[in-house]
Amino acid sequence: MKLAARVSQVSPSLTLAIAAKAKAMKAEGIDVCSFSAGEPDFDTPAHIKAAAVKALDENKTKYGAASGEPKLREAIAHKLKIDNHLDYKAENVIVCNGGKHSLYNLIVALIDPGDEVIIPAPYWLSYPEMVILASGVPVIVHTDASTGYKITPEKLREAITPKTKLFVLNSPSNPTGMVYTPEEIKAIAEIIVEKDILVVSDEIYEKILYDGAEHLCIGSLGKEIFDRTIISNGFAKAYSMTGWRIGYLAGPTEIIKATITIQSHSTSNVCTFAQYGAIAALESSQDCVEEMRQAFAKRRQVMFDRLNAIPGLTCEKPDGAFYMFPDISKLGVKSLEFCDALLEKEQVAVIPGVAFGADDNIRLSYATDMATIEKGMDRLEKFVRSALGSSASRSRI
């Protein structure tokens, strides 16, 4: 059977593959410490679940508008105005099957063959694959710890060509947890406007911030950048609703109309009664978000301290999200080999940095309980110390 050529050009998701392997090992009775999945370990808050149950009881189980339930689109527009200072109406919003799907809809709507999309690395692993599926060209701009794993205005300017159509901004970042400062956002916005390109701002982790870090939405800085901005967000991370698959895009009317057309011929509407849970998430108290954030903050400190106490590892302290991105280059081994051996020998699941365009790093999620973090760090330290104690560099792992 001959498959479409585009399939061979795209890599499967390493994060999902490793998370699935860890779950399979657990199902076999193996004690695995998993730091692989970007998924809060908390239950979805009770009032959100109750709203979905109420919607079921009221028989909200039929087809809905491909663009999303009108009340949810209005609630999202209101949230964006109050939280992010973006003057959107409901017609500027589409509800999608998760944040990932919102980005896919956008890429399909915008990118023609040969169009370039600038993506800073380390990047969320699906960004370049989506561009490739649309026959676009992902332009990867590498960053490192010296700039906090963030693109500089100079590097952004250098990467823009006449073929550039879109810049991908992710703050707080997956996989690094770094947050662009308001000054950095303003400098990027000036270049976007000057070069007359578009920017998609992936803000899925906007509510998960630490140590006074501030999330500034790039589209709020004036009409010129607002007109060139598309917002991608969702409910998975802040409200622990990963399995609900509710995300959204907000942006210029023409772009949103195009994504609605695409969605109408691909998935149609998002699960109807689940959207009522999302309405409750936005319109009810946000105390549940803060409770989870505080728990993440405590876990962050413990994992950060433990990682930096392990010889051979260095780790920047993240400002947001729930990931650590330590550098393993001093160990003389690349990320995939390291992660495979760590899972096999110590039953600790982490994600190789090569999936994010950074082969000298690994990603750990601290969206898990403290006991697992402590036990997993003990195992990781044992593994690394054993590697450092080996005499032959290539046989360390």
Automatic annotation (TrEMBL):
CDD domains: AAT_like
Domain of life: Bacteria
Domain Aminotransferase class I/classII large residue range list: 31-380
Transmembrane segments: none
Enzyme Commission number, as recorded: 2.6.1.-
Record keyword Transferase present: yes
Top EC group: transferase
Keywords of the record: Aminotransferase, Pyridoxal phosphate, Transferase
Keyword Transferase attributed: yes
Similarity comment: Belongs to the class-I pyridoxal-phosphate-dependent aminotransferase family.
Protein name, UniProt field: Aminotransferase
Organism (species): Plectonema radiosum NIES-515
Lineage of the organism: Bacteria, Bacillati, Cyanobacteriota, Cyanophyceae, Oscillatoriophycideae
